[in-house]
Amino acid sequence: MADQPNQGPSRRQFLTSAAALGAGAGISAVAGSASAATPDPLITEVQDWASGLGDGVDASPYGVPIQFEGDVIRRNVEWLTADTISSINFTPIHALDGTITPQGCAFERHHSGAIELKKEDYRLMINGLVDTPLVFSYEDLERFPRQNHTYFLECAANTGMEWAGAQLNGAQFTHGMIHNMEYSGVTLRTLLEEAGLDAAGDLKDKWVYVEGADASSNGRSIPMEKALDDCLIAFKANGEALRMEHGYPVRLVVPGWEGNMWVKWIRRIEVMDGPVESREETSKYTDVLEDGTARKWTWVMDAKSIVTSPSPQAPIKHGHGPLVITGLAWSGHGKITRVDVSKDGGKTWETARLGKEGEDKALTRFYLDTEWNGEEMFLQSRAIDETGYVQPTKTQLREVRGLNSIYHNNCIQTWWVKADGEAENVEVS
Ligand SMILES: Nc1nc2c(c(=O)[nH]1)N[C@H]1C(S)=C(S)[C@@H](COP(=O)(O)O)O[C@H]1N2
Ligand SMILES: [Mo]
């Protein structure tokens, strides 16, 4: 990883000159629109908020973002689905920074709506090829040793509308079927071992079938190796109870694997001799290739990245000079080790700075601290993970997959940033 390659002399120079001009005038002087000779009333005059009292501590039960951030919300695309019950909305990734997605704006995907399930009414059953079939209450689950892990969840359909051409104008819509949370829960291994796996015999070819308590049940088969590796039965996300829409009170976490397998309101885990081949792993969540045959068991989300700002919903509004280009990268195969950014549609690349070291199967924030003087850019980012895998171009992906796919589109995205700072979703060839 390159260490701050773009914190060059120009930025330091800017900071020094801003200080010399005096507070307040400095920032706008950089944009070339004001000088120290024009006093800024926000600096020179006492403001309302400093001459009276603010609000008292809030008597309402739970805090919400300040009103000025009211547009940082999940949004849906109305024409995408017939109704909002079996539907999806999108995380406002264009407006977030860092890596953690607050639950309140983390995208939701339901096949039969989000259900209200009380902790007291919650049961989790483990049956099938185990020594002792068990039923756990929520309180039972809380008595097993817990762990904390941060993982991304990406719906396999993320970017699925972009196969045939540039379609949706905004990172929220092209790449917003993703969130990244810190989960607290019990490992699936702990619970399977509690039920006893001896009855299953040789575990090598065994599977678990997991299903939810909602009407869709969203049943999926997971190979035993993954079930025993890093899956979590999670109760909390980002420190607090799961929101209803994310599976309250308990959901399955399947790190690095497609979001569909992260069963919400999880009610049953059956140890089996083979996969069920359920709807969600046959007619859905398989990838039809050019010749009409379908890839199945495409569980892992390959390395991918997106520039979140500037982007169509986050145009450049300030003047020329310093510009922070930022975005997110992730890989279901492990850690992100490098992210490159191109301003010319992939002809030349610069290595971005990672906000912090890449984490296993979690979002990584990248920054390219640069200068922009109104020139057009064809902005792209490309992620590289610890296996050495490099995120493919759209052309490379189409060569292998054709145009019949919906799921697992991890191609490089292009934003055309124009002279006025506005950005548009485009394809470059
Ligand atoms: N029980 C149940 N689990 C489910 C689903 C569902 O409809 N029912 N949807 C799946 C799909 S397709 C995805 S992408 C993720 C979405 O999780 P989220 O709503 O927390 O973002 O949940 C998965 N788990
Ligand atoms: Mo999904």
UniProtKB/TrEMBL annotation:
GO BP, sorted A to Z: sulfur compound metabolic process
Species assigned in the record: Pelagimonas varians
Cofactor field: Mo-molybdopterin
Protein name: TMAO/DMSO reductase
Alphabetical UniProt keywords: Metal-binding, Molybdenum, Oxidoreductase, Signal
SUPFAM superfamilies: E set domains (SSF81296), Oxidoreductase molybdopterin-binding domain (SSF56524)
Domain Oxidoreductase molybdopterin-binding: residue ranges: 116-277
Cleaved signal peptide residues: 1-36
Residues covered by the Moybdenum cofactor oxidoreductase dimerisation domain: 295-414
GO MF terms held by the record: heme binding; molybdenum ion binding; molybdopterin cofactor binding; sulfite oxidase activity
Keyword Cell division: no
The keyword Metal-binding appears for this protein: yes
Xref: InterPro entries: Ig_E-set, MoCF_OxRdtse_dimer, Mopterin_OxRdtase_euk, OxRdtase_Mopterin-bd_dom, OxRdtase_Mopterin-bd_sf, Sulfite_DH_SoxC, TAT_signal
Pfam families: Mo-co_dimer, Oxidored_molyb
Listed PANTHER family: SULFITE OXIDASE, MITOCHONDRIAL, SULFITE REDUCTASE
